[in-house]
Description:
54% helix
Amino acid sequence: MEINKKMTIEEILNVNPNIANLLLASGMHCLGCVMASGENLEQACGVHGIDADELVGRINEMLAE
Length: 65
């Protein structure tokens, strides 16, 4: 399954819990907060100043390995 920036953090972690390590390393430390289930990755990246397209690319590269 390919990740996209319209998915919530919760949906992304349900695809593969190991994605959490990549999110944490990117500066996204809100994985357990209530917003993780209501906010999509693009919104979360905006709040944290992270390029959503770049992060999605890195996540999908990791999943392809």
